[in-house]
Amino acid sequence: MNNTELKEFILTVKQTCRKTSYSPRGFLSPIRLLYRLLQQFDRKFRVNAWVISGDRSLKTSITTIFTGNKKNKNYLNNLLFNNLCSEVHIGKIWRWNSIKIVHKKPPGCSLRISEIHKNSRKLPGNKASFFIPCWVGGEADLSADISTIIHKKSLNSDLNKIKQGNIQFEITKEKSRFDNFYYTMYLPYVTRVHKNRVIPLSYETMKKNFKRCDLLMVKKDSEFIAGQLIIYNNDIPRLWFTGLKNGNTDYLKYHITGAMYYFAMTYLKQKGCKRVHFGLTRPFLNDGVFQYKKKRNLQITDSSKIGFLIQPLGKLTTVKEFFLKNPFIYLEKGKFYGAVFIDNDQLHSQEDYEKIYETYYIKGLSKLTMYLFGDNQKNMKEAIPPKLFGRMSLHSAETLFEK
Q: Percentage of the chain surpassing pLDDT 90?
């Protein structure tokens, strides 16, 4: 257990003691305290481990060993295998030993993903690994004209859809409207979209924070069909949770997502807010939600403390496709970087570099790092456009697979 994990455990003990000390049945409090401590300890410091296999294509397959919680495992199953996979649960291990499980990996495993704290120590000499936060957050500047916040093409599309669909919004703080939002919009929507990966916020927790929120309700004609909670933290509003009526994704054809972003930014700008936080997003650069927010001039500013330490274990051919299809944001020495993996036959001119940069670079990244599969790395490196020097670098992907 490192210092960070020890501090987390001490904080957990203190919080549990405070909760238990107010027990109406004082003579049971020591037993309850012990029970809760054991629960908290197990939840925080012991993680499950699985071996997961699935066909990535007709030609290749990949076997992964994953340590962490079930929801993140389900998310990665969908990312890697589109949920077409088999898995074997191999038990629970201490969180601080999850990295070392690589030494005991089952035969055939070609990728290891460990859910760890960002301050946890990596294995000495473990160069072939990335720490990918489970979630990244970003902000947008509201002081400028809204046409500079939302890309012109996206803004025009939003405004046209709003006008054509007769979409309007209202701001409320009424408790009854909050209840309607939680039970008929938020909960059905996240359950339908995220399925077995969903981690819904409890009604009690959301209600407790509602006093710090505005509830933006979206209606088409006279029917309320969507909502969004805006929470205020340290004077920076955050687009917190959204929902669709009865979880019905058919409402998306009215461009409701774009309307909610536009309404929220217009409302907050009128209130005099200088910045807005767009909430948390998965850090994979091809993710649809991530790309949608990127068009809103997002700047990466923060991330979750827990993330995935990802490391290739096997031959290049077995994991190459995963890296090619899943560019991501990773943390290195407290800074955000983007990792994009490409075949050398994708790069023919400076325009190819510029297209990759435009597609994947987002403000807040220190650099976009490209990993090249194949030869001619030196010649390719010389082709990076001068205007992208310092923003983009090129490395050999093969070095990630050297033992």
A: 39
| Non-local CB neighbours of 21 within 8 Å, separated by 6+ positions | 29
* Residues 123 and 98: beta-carbon distance below 8 Å: no
Residue 368 has pLDDT above 80, yes or no: yes
Burial of 379 (0-12, 13-18, 19+ CB in 10 A): exposed
Would the CA dihedral through 370, 371, 373, 378 be positive or negative? positive
3-state secondary structure 329-393: EEEECCEEEEEEEEEHHHCCCHHHHHHHHHHHCCECCCEEEEEEECCCHHHHHCCCCHHHECCEE
CATH of 136-302, one of 3.40.630.30, 1.20.1250.20, 3.40.50.300, 3.40.50.720: 3.40.630.30
Other Cβ atoms closer than 10 A to 111: 22
Mean of pLDDT over the chain: 82
